[in-house]
Structures are given as structure tokens and as C-alpha cells.
């Protein structure tokens, strides 16, 4: 029987077009509309009907027909969105550039430390809304500042490779423990009772507090299982660290070697510690580079402790704080969650090299 209905536009792809469409269709996050249109065209090029393509890709038949016809008429350019109707732009590229240059290179008037939408709008004669849109498009956030510190450790690369190697490929017959101290944990009590959360109202607590003393938590995170060995100490000296090493020794299988990831704190390297380690050869200490505590996975666990326990708790004494944290660690160990390290040492070093390149360019271009 002769085919009934509107004839389909013939669609034949060149090798370059097919390769481009395949690349567009594989986009994981960006421009999903373009990825879908590319998949429609690729399916149509295989000879499938609009109905079959619509069913396979879960779109309507008019959608398939639209992008088939657009591609036949305009090829790859036809898959881009057409200009939408609306008022013409009132802010020229030159004015946008002036805002960007002023934001990046000029200090605000009046002695302010950074620009605000109000001060920039006043300085440029534009509206706050326009300034906000420009900053948002170009990813500028003058109100934010981030802390950073470059390691000056001459063995930085070797230490990064050593520690990341322990995370990604731990030695056989050994435990890898990320060890550190969370010092100066304060037993804080609010000056009035904490008010509970209610519908439409968050929990409330007073901004001021009463200090009842401090304690330090020594913690060793088993990288493989996520379990934690914790011990409270009132002081933070090599004697306390030695006591914690003995606790680790008593709470780990005696037949396993222990690889401890520690920071460069002086109490970890005293002669007393070195003599004890010499008598216990199953202990192997690996030190993070200077100013690189982010390499120690136990810091990630300390973040969980702070967010889930310490930040909103109240305690009337140091003993109460220690008992509360100990109970929380016990509950954590009943259902531990290991933290999975994913970046290789090469990826870390490449990322750092890119940051240094941008930093050097910015420094050279700056008037400072």
C-alpha cells in the first residue's frame, strides 16, 4: 500500500555531522536539550519513523518532526535555540566590560573592603538588578572570600604520593589509620534553655554561653572500615600522644602492621616517641606535608563530629562533654561509614599546578 501521511524529510548524515552529534548526545550534565535533539537526529538518520523515535526517546511526534526538519534545512546550526522575542538589550557589551573591570581591578569608594551591588550600581549608574545579573553570569562574588595556604614542605610531592598511595592501595596485612587531635573542645552551656523546633520555627538558642573548660580528643580513623578509636586527654603533649599510641596498640589486632597518618606536630617526633616506636616495629608513621592537613581523612570525620554533635550541644562540665562524645563515637562505630578517597596523587598535583599557574598570572597582571 502507498504510504499515507506527510512524507518525511530525507535525512542523511556526513561523517563529521555524525561524529559531532554523537559527541553532543553524550553530554552528562550540560545542555541536555541539545543532547536530546542530537539523539533524535541520530535515530532518524537510521531510518526510523517519527513515531518509533518518539516512543524510543519518550518525546512527542511533533517534537521529532520539528528537529528532523530543522536539521534537514539548517544542518547542525538548526539544533541551536532560535533567538526569542523580547525587548532589545539596553546594556551594551562595553558597559558590561566596564563593570567587570571595575569589580576586578578597582577598590570601592568610601574605604569599603569590597564592592556591593549598591556601591557598584552607584559607581556605574546602573541598577542593582543589572549588577547582580552581570556578577552572576560571570561568577563574581565580591562578598565571599576563601582561605588558602600553599605548603612550603620541600618533600610535598613525596608525602602526597605516600599518603594517597596508602588510601588507594593499602599494603597487605596492615591497617591504615588516620590519626589526629581535635584540641580545645569547649564544654559550653547556654545562658538560657534551648527552645525546641516547632512548625515554621527553627530551634533557638542564646548567642552567649558559659565556658566550663576544654578537652582534647585523640582519634584514629580506620580508613578501610570507618571505625574510630578515640581517647580524651586534658592536655596536648607528647605524653598524651604516647598514651594514645598505647591505646591504639591495645585495640588493634597484634598481627597487623599499623600505618599511621599524622601531621607534623612536634609532639609526634620527640625522642620519647621515637624510642617507643623503635620498640614497636609494627607502627609506621607517615606525615602529611606542612599546611596540608586536608590530606588526613580523620579531619573529614572531625567535621562530622562537629556538625552532628558539638555545634548544637550544651554541656555543664568537661566530664559531661567527654561522656557525650564517647557515646557518640560508640554509636558511630555501631554503623561506621568509611570515607572513600578518589583523587590520585597525579590529579592532586595537576590541580595544584593549574592553581599556581592562575595565581602567578594574576600576580603578574596585578598592580599589587
Describe this structure in words.
By secondary structure, this protein is an alpha/beta fold. It is 45% helix and 13% strand. It contains 13 helices and five strands. The chain has helices at residues 15-25, 32-45, 50-57, 61-74, 93-105, 117-124, 128-137, 156-168, 238-250, 271-279, 298-310, 318-334, 345-365; strands at residues 174-190, 209-222, 228-233, 257-262, 283-287. A five-stranded mixed sheet has the order 3-2-1-4-5, sandwiched between helices. Helix 3 crosses helix 4 (61-74). The longest helix is centred in the C-terminal third of the chain and has 21 residues, at 345-365. It is extended and about 80 Å long. The termini are far apart. The model has no long low-confidence stretch (mean pLDDT 86).
Short description:
By secondary structure, this protein is of the alpha/beta class. Helices cover 45% and strands 13% of the residues.
What features would you highlight for this structure?
368 residues; alpha/beta; five-stranded mixed beta sheet; 13 helices
Amino acid at each position: 500500500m502507498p504510504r499515507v501521511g506527510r512524507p518525511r524529510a530525507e535525512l542523511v548524515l556526513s561523517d563529521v555531522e555524525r561524529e559531532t552529534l554523537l559527541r553532543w548526545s553524550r553530554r552528562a550534565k550540560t545542555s541536555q536539550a541539545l543532547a536530546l535533539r542530537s539523539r533524535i537526529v541520530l535515530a532518524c538518520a537510521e531510518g526510523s519513523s517519527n513515531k518509533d523515535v518518539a516512543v524510543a526517546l519518550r518525546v512527542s511526534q511533533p517534537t521529532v518532526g520539528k528537529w528532523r526538519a530543522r536539521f534537514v534545512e539548517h544542518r547542525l546550526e538548526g539544533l541551536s535555540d532560535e533567538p526569542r522575542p523580547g525587548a532589545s538589550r539596553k546594556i551594551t557589551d562595553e558597559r558590561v566590560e566596564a563593570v567587570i573591570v571595575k569589580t576586578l581591578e578597582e577598590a570601592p569608594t568610601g574605604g569599603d573592603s569590597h564592592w556591593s551591588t549598591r556601591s557598584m550600581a552607584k559607581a556605574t549608574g546602573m541598577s542593582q538588578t543589572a549588577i547582580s545579573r552581570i556578577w552572576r553570569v560571570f561568577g563574581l562574588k565580591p562578598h565571599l572570600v576563601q582561605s588558602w595556604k600553599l605548603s612550603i614542605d620541600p618533600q610535598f610531592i613525596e608525602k602526597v604520593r605516600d599518603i594517597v598511595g596508602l588510601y588507594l592501595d593499602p599494603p597487605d596485612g596492615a591497617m591504615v589509620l588516620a590519626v589526629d587531635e581535635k584540641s580545645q573542645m569547649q564544654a559550653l552551656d547556654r545562658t538560657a534553655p534551648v527552645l525546641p523546633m516547632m512548625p515554621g520555627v527553627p530551634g533557638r538558642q542564646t548567642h552567649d554561653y558559659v565556658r566550663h573548660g576544654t578537652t582534647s580528643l585523640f582519634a584514629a580513623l580506620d580508613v578501610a572500615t570507618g571505625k574510630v578509636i578515640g581517647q580524651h586527654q586534658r592536655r596536648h603533649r607528647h605524653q598524651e600522644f604516647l598514651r594514645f599510641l598505647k591505646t591504639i596498640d591495645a585495640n588493634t589486632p597484634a598481627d597487623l602492621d599499623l600505618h599511621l597518618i599524622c601531621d607534623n606536630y612536634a609532639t609526634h617526633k620527640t625522642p620519647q616517641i621515637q624510642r617507643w616506636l623503635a620498640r614497636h616495629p609494627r607502627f609506621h608513621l607517615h606525615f602529611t606535608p606542612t599546611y596540608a592537613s586536608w590530606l588526613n581523612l580523620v579531619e573529614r570525620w572531625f567535621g562530622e563530629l562537629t556538625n552532628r554533635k558539638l555545634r548544637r550541644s550544651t554541656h555543664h562540665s568537661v566530664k559531661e562533654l567527654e561522656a557525650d562524645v564517647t557515646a557518640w563515637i560508640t554509636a558511630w562505630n555501631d554503623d561506621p561509614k568509611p570515607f572513600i578517597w578518589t583523587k590520585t596523587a597525579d590529579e592532586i598535583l595537576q590541580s595544584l599546578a593549574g592553581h599556581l599557574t592562575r595565581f602567578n598570572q594574576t600576580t603578574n597582571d596585578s598592580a599589587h
